[in-house]
Structures are given as structure tokens and as C-alpha cells.
Amino acid sequence: MQWTKVLGLGLGAAALLGLGIILGHFAIPKKANSPAPSVSAPQDLDLEILETIMGQLDAHRIRENLRELSREPHLASSPRDEDLVQLLLQRWKDPESGLDSAEAFTYEVLLSFPSQEQPNVVDIVGPTGDIIHSCHRTEENVTGEQGGPDVVQPYAAYAPSGTPQGLLVYANRGTEEDFKELQTQGIKLEGTIALTRYGGVGRGAKAVNAAKHGVAGVLVYTDPADINDGLSLPNETFPNSWYLPPSGVERGSYYKYFGDPLTPYLPAIPSSFRLDPANVSGFPPIPTQPIGFQDARDLLCNLNGTLAPDTWQGALGCHYRLGPGFRPDGDFSADSQVNVSIYNRLELRNSSNVLGIIRGAVEPDRYVLYGNHRDSWVHGAVDPSSGTAVLLELSRVLGTLLKKGTWRPRRSIVFASWGAEEFGLIGSTEFTEEFFNKLQERTVAYINVDIAVFGMEIRSPGPGDLSIYDNWIRYFNRSSPVYGLVPSLGSLGAGSDYAPFIHFLGISSMDIAYTYDRSKTSARIYPTYHTAFDTFDYVDKFLDPGFSSHQAVARTAGSIILRLSDSFFLPLKVSDYSETLRSFLQAAQQDLGALLEQHSISLGPLVTAVEKFEAAATALGQRISALKGSPDPLKVRMLNDQLMLLERTFLNPRAFPEERYYSHVLWATRTGSVATFPGLSNACSRARDTASGSEAWAEVQRQLSIVVTALEGAAATLRPVADL
């Protein structure tokens, strides 16, 4: 099947300051009569060096990087994972293309693995305990890469061991609402096994929701409707297309939080206090196991009971029913039950981060961080090796210029390869915990490139092709009151290693990926995600033949890093943040204003706080413009620090006591339906049906005060340094 060839660059910036990098410096065309920079201005970004770097980023080298990185499975802490640690150190210490220094930092962390002696199994058993049918324990070895000894069996990391058995029910996506719907249908959930599909809520939340209703065990599968555009036959899937084969199983961590489970808020080093594993919160409460949709079809298409709602139906080729139990005219007897036998174990393992550093020539104490994780569930060609392949090529090009003596950045650049990300962002979180103060005081921004390319069959950039910016704005755009039609950026959740930087440290962060045209497919992510089919040939044949999209990501990331590290004035636009705050305010006024008024809560202080921020942002922009005419290095440094530290002003470690690491009052998790400040939205959602004067409405007032205080503090940070 021929897929779209013009894809947008997906780029999420937790701080819309990041948008200023794109819009203010290489996306929005400059006016022809813009004044030339002063001849007395200090050395700024060298556009010739930037152009040289863009030209030297080689698609073929990225391809060969990916071939090597994904050659073998490299689960966190495995021998191959440690081999890649040494590969990175070797590359970054190379005498001709290496960096100033490179070092590995090792942490002892709690990981979860299936037992090699007793594999996890899902069986259908008869009333006498005899096994009638068994689900597949491994994925089909379709290319010779799915059956090796280093291919870990599909499992739910951190799910507890146990052998629950019961009647099967279908619980859609496993949300709280889905289980309530089953109860509304008169289905008794106590002691059942729930079959759920990916999506809707996080992996671990499915087990948590199920346990609340007495469910004994959970199975999770990927429905072809959600990832394969409904296609499910072997000749329609990999290796014949990019679609997931019927035996494909999405592995993943089911731990609620991020970071090492035993050392929350502390680095996992020998001197740190560790929790007793028996007292750790955030693990799934009941045994859980992922399965392929081939096995899900055998289970779901034989279910008895009421027909599932239309929105619960999928593409397994049958009508989905709710259960409980199997129909009498199906493949299994009506009194058959499902047994889920899980033998996962917890182990303390060593996992390493690798850091490579280019020291800044003028401001070495200001860091631009660029990172990606190294570990994968199996071969991990897309996730994460596509991002690491790009990282290695960019560091090679910069390192070569560095060793030749033709370039050194103004600020320090730190390349990072994080360990054990797949188990819950462990390496990056431990790094932020160990170096919390230094990073908060000195880091300009964190750039993340994990999955570099989601898309398929991208043509190489060339004459007649759209630029990345034009392509991006064509497929993902929004209307800006300042710029008009601009690229659309998403906000950052906790899906990759940017999470501890933005949510915990308050560092402006960005995640870059080349994505597909979502109007052409219903796939929620690339189909072989976290399976043994995510291989080099999958990328080389289906996602990015020629690796032009990988090269485009490298050029985009390189441009951003060079501008952040070399520009005299940091390319962060505070005015773009004003747009976000104004949109949050308007949403609160329109969707919550009347409700708040009924409970004698005024949005007046919030309106005033947003206006103060807007005024301070405008004034700062004017000071920057004035200073550009005759820049004083010390004054520029002060202004740059104001820009850098702005993000930190939105942190309040007591704002969300029920969450771990989330302290950013603008970008924390939002569960409420109103797209406004998350704490306010969530609190209003919980308080809506309670009486005035309740604790829930007191929490609404508290969250409103937290936001107002943060905005006023941010405005104060933007005012002249001498203005107290």
C-alpha cells in the first residue's frame, strides 16, 4: 500500500518557550528591511558553521548506526545493553570525532523480569483442571529475529506473580467507566479475568481499575482496529507491510510512577536509603499479562453474554460480547475458565547512563542537554534506536569540527544516553535526582529525540519538495493571534525522558519526531511498538527507506542545539508563553466561570496575574530588542538567565501531593475536561457534584491560589533584575 509521502515534524514543547526557537529563528520569514546586527556585537551564532553541520549530517551513516544499535536485543542491564555503553564511550572518546569527555554513571535499580525457568502462561482450563487451549508464549519467528535466546518473553513489567483463574469478561480499555458499565449490565466481576485492549488509560491503570472491582487478573491486547487499520491476516502484516503480525505483543512497564521504585526523590546510589520492595506503591495490584490479537481473537470471539456497545467493538472478525464465560456453541465448553499464571520477579540490577560533553568556550556553566534512552524491549530499531542513531551522527559531526579546532560552542553541550527508560524513565530520573541543584541552576534546555521517525516512505528532501516547516504547518497547525497560521505543538506528558526535566526540574524541554499523516491511518502509534518485530529491516523497508526522514530530524535537532548553545541571546520567546496563559484563562472563564461564581470563587485574581505576566513579557521583549543594538555581555547574561529560569517559577512541589515528581503547575497531568490550568481543571472536575464549603471546593480555591502565585512569581522573574 502506498502511504503519504509528505509528513509533518511532530514536536512537543512542554514550555512554549520552545516554540520561540522554531518560530522566532528559522521558521517565520524575516522582514526584508530588518536592521543588520551591530558591527560591535559580540560573536553570535555562526550561520556558516550551522550550514556546514547541516550539510555533513549523513543519512547513510545514520542508517549504519541503526543497523549496529538494533543488531541484537538490548533489554536494560543485559550484556548487549552494556556493550552499547562501551560503544557510546568509544565513539565519544574517538580522537578524530569525539567530544571533550565522556563518562558512564551507574545506578543500582529495581527491575522486573519474567522467570526463565517458569514462563508466564495463559490457558483455558476445563472444570477438572485439564488444559483445553494455551495462548502463545512467544511471538512467531517470521524473520529469524523473533526466536533468539535474548528475546524476552512478552510480559507486563512489575506485575505481581500469581495464578488467578476465573470466568472471562471483556472490559474494553479497562477504564473505571468501562468496569462500571459492566456492573451496570449486571455482570458480577468478583473473581473474573478481564480482557482489555490498549488505549484509553495507561497500562498499569487497567489493572488498578480492575482490582477495585474484584477482578482477579488482567489480559491486555492490541486490537487491529487501533493499530492495523483493521488488517489482521498474515499476508497483510509484517514482513509484508508495516502492520503488526497476529502474534505481536506489546511489552511495557506497568509501574505507575517514573524513576527507580526503591529510591523516590533520591539517586539509586549505594549511600541512598531504599524502600522495602514489599512496601513500594505503584505496582499493579493483580497479575497481568499482555497477549497478541491472534490469542485475543480465540478468547473474545468465543465469549458469551450481552453484545458489547458499538464503541467497544473492534476488528477481530466477530461481534464482541461482554461475558462472563464462553458460549456453549463455541470452541470451548461453557464451564471453561481462563487461568493466568504469572511468575515475574524483581531484581536489583546495574544500569548506566552515558554522558558526552562539549565544554562551552564562553559560558561553560550553561548546559544544553540532548538525550535519548538506549535500552529497548527487544531489538528496538524504532524505539529507541532511531533516536540514538541520529544522536550519534550529530555528535560525530560536532565532534569532528571540535577536534579540527574550527568550532566550539558558546555554552556547553551535553549528550546523554539514558539507561532503563522502558522500565519507567529510570536513568534520566536518577540523573535529575543526583544532580538536581546543578541542573536547575545551569540548564538552558533539554532536547529529547527518542523515536526519531514514526512515518513511512518519506521521500528525500530536494528541489520542489516542501521544507520541514511548510510540511509541518500543512499537516499540524494552529492559529496564533501574533503569527497567524503556525505549526502545532503538543504538550509533554511522561512518555519519554523529558518528563523529569520538565515536571521535576522545570527545565524547558522539547521532544522531536518525524510522524505520519494521521488522516491516512488510525494507528495510535507505529504498529510494531514494543514487539520483537521492531527491527532494522522494518525501518529500512517500510518506515524510512533512504533514511531521509532520520536525516531531517538530525538537521532539525542540530539547528535547535546550535542556536541554543551558540546564540548570544537565548532563542526563547516569552511572548509565546503569554498565548498559552491567555488560552488557559479564556477556557477557565468560558467553561468554569459560571460554576465558580455559584460557589463564590472569583477568577479576578487569575485575570490580573495573567495580565501582569503579559505586561512583563512585553517589557522584557522590548529590553532585549534595545539591548541588541549595543549589547553589554553582562546585561545579556542577566537577561538570558531570566529566560532560562522562567520555567522554574512554575514549579510548586506541594501543588499535587497525590502525584510523584509532578510539580509544574502548567503542564502537570490534566484529568479534568476543561483545557485550562491542570490543577484548577482537575479540582473543579472532582468538586462539581459536591456541596459548597466541602473539602473539594476548598481544593479548588487552593489550586487557584497556586496558579495565581506562580504567575505573579513568573512576572516578577521577567522584570528587571534590580527591580525587587
TrEMBL record:
Its main location: membrane. Pfam families: PA, Peptidase_M28, TFR_dimer. The keyword Zinc-finger does not apply. One of its GO terms (cellular component) is apical plasma membrane. Residues 167-252 form the PA domain. It is a single-pass type II membrane protein. InterPro entries: PA_dom_sf, PA_domain, Peptidase_M28, Peptidase_M28B, TFR-like_dimer_dom, TFR-like_dimer_dom_sf. Residues 353-541 form the Peptidase M28 domain. Residues 601-719 form the Transferrin receptor-like dimerisation domain. Its cofactor is Zn(2+). Keywords: Aminopeptidase, Calcium, Disulfide bond, Glycoprotein, Hydrolase, Metal-binding, Metalloprotease, Protease, Signal-anchor, Transmembrane, Zinc. It is found in: Apical cell membrane. One of its GO terms (molecular function) is aminopeptidase activity. GO terms for biological process: proteolysis. Aminopeptidase with broad substrate specificity. Has lower activity with substrates that have Asp or Glu in the P2' position, or Pro in the P3' position. Lacks activity with substrates that have both Pro in the P3' position and Asp or Glu in the P2' position. Lacks carboxypeptidase activity. Lacks dipeptidyl-peptidase IV type activity. Belongs to the peptidase M28 family. M28B subfamily. This is Aminopeptidase NAALADL1. It comes from Macaca mulatta. The lineage of its organism: Eukaryota, Metazoa, Chordata, Craniata, Vertebrata.
